[in-house]
Amino acid sequence: MTEMISATGLVKRYKNVEALRGLDLSVPEGKVLALLGPNGAGKTTAVRILATLIKPDEGTAVVAGRDVLNDAEGVRRSIGLSGQYAAVDEHLTGFENLEMVGRLYGLGGVASKARARELLERFDLSDAGDRPSKTYSGGMRRRLDLAGALVAAPPVLILDEPTTGLDPRSRQQMWEVIRELVGAGSTLLLTTQYLEEADKLADDIVVIDHGRQIARGTADELKSQTGGERIEVVLVDDGDRDAAVAVLGQVATGEVQSGDSERALTAAVTGGADSLSQVLAGFAAGGIAVLDIGLRRPTLDDVFLSLTGHATESDTDSDAGSAGGEGA
């Protein structure tokens, strides 16, 4: 399978901060790779190198068959880039923004106008296309920005936290747009600090922290690293706690853990639904009432916490100041 993005040993330093520490990346044609990490992990630094906006201090990178150092212009012709903040001219209409991008790509006046109207329709912006973009909502501006990245129909898309700051409805709309692009054959590198986003969109996930890759795999592969399923219980009466622990202990693979309160209990299991059925039967036989009980799979949040010891949206390490607004 053709690698549309391939990077080896990327290193980037800003004074005393090492934003990237030997990062390797590969994205096969037609696939989505999510680069997952907290603020300060180095995600945007990696994006800027792949987009030829900055040069690595060490390492190599090839995008769409073109070297980012030796053929930067060729790389730029082959990618569509959408950054963390919508890069639109507020004084131009949506149509004028897209037409301008087309002209900058050398499409010519007629082709630029046609492509602008086509993309406004595709991104559900036709009704607002002749309004100044400063009147657009945050979700509309992000869709317009993504449309701008597609004007030249590039084979590779690089989206740097495309849904940051959006409300849940706008985020869902952006996810649908991204799925359509991938379904049409685009290759996508997606940086995000939203675990649900990586879970829903990515074929493969690279988890980075402090500029290094600390894990790679599909969402299911990464989740399996945390130890499988668990039964979570919230009791009606904390007086039933000891009896509930005894029932859970019959199926648990380790010690039953306490939750946020005395009434909350968690037990790691391997028997799946059979273990849950056994626990329910034991609770019924013992007259143990529950407010909530369920079989839960590990989440990517659990994965990230187990790998790094902190949550994804932390600001524990920031190359922002030294990177001139790095932010990732």
TrEMBL record:
Domain ABC transporter span(s) in chain numbering: 5-235
A GO molecular-function descriptor: ATP binding
Residue runs in coiled coils: none
Source domain of life: Bacteria
The keyword Nucleotide-binding appears for this protein: yes
Record's subcellular location: Cell membrane
Protein name per UniProt: ATP-binding cassette domain-containing protein
Annotated source species: Nocardioides marmoriginsengisoli
